[in-house]
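re: ur question from yesterday

yeah so i grabbed the chain u mentioned. its 282 aa long if i counted rite. heres the sequnce exactly as i have it in my notes:
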Amino acid sequence: MSESSILLKSDIKFFIKNFLKKTLGIQIKKVRKEDARIKSKVSVSAIKKLIRDKGFAVSDGQASWFYTAYERGDLDPLTNFAMTFLETNIDKKSPILITGCGTGIMAFHLADAGYTNIAGFDYLHECVEVAQQVSIMGNYNITFYQDDGFNPKDTGQKYDAITALHWVFSAWMGNYGNKKLAAEKVASADFREELLTDFLQKYSTLLNTNGVLILELTDAVSDYRIPTDHYLGELSKDIYPIRHSPEQVEKCAAVAGLSVISKNLSVLYGHHPRAQYILRKL
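ran it thru and got these structure tokens back, copy pasting raw so excuse formatting
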């Protein structure tokens, strides 16, 4: 199937789903509208065109995660919780860093919510370029730049809030063109803790005292998930193999000078149960 056919199929599916919601699910729409978290004042069609033009609209024979990102809206409970937490607890003038920002969805949402000091970076330069163009189209004042999330550069800026959502467990799997971890190491508890401690220490140095890091990880309960519980069967065992238990996160956080103040689990969205931790710098 050609790239244009793949994207046409994806767009038609999105159109039909929205049409059915509007014509047959009026009451459902009204209920969800009040809880909607992720929005965009730049049209989805315009953003999709930018992604097509940059050449990353299709991946592995289907519409890419980035191409369909704005279609997901408020479907992810953990993203919704993170945005609500920030809007409830972080001052509108506070410096905020969105790591693994992709095409800027969360950054734009926060800007629309009134935040004025936002920066975002992504490992993929094409994502950064799209985010920068959307920023111009929407008249946003957000700094977007390319960086390695596992080795973030120190710009001299300290932040009151940093988010690391959706990407960490996926990048450990090598999904963004970065180096994939050795298969023989991923099940080791010591190796998992080493990775997480290193990650937390690097971001702890970028936080102001009492600043928060919102981090999403694949939960270690996935180690015990039976293959027949996943539509990919045996293949599911190798998806996001770096997993952490709450006890491991607490242990690694303490080493990095952080304290877990909130933890939340979601099983409705994504390949495996995901845990979101809000950590405060001591």
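noticed a couple things. The first strand starts at residue 58 and ends at 59. also The longest helix spans residues 3-24.
anyway ttyl
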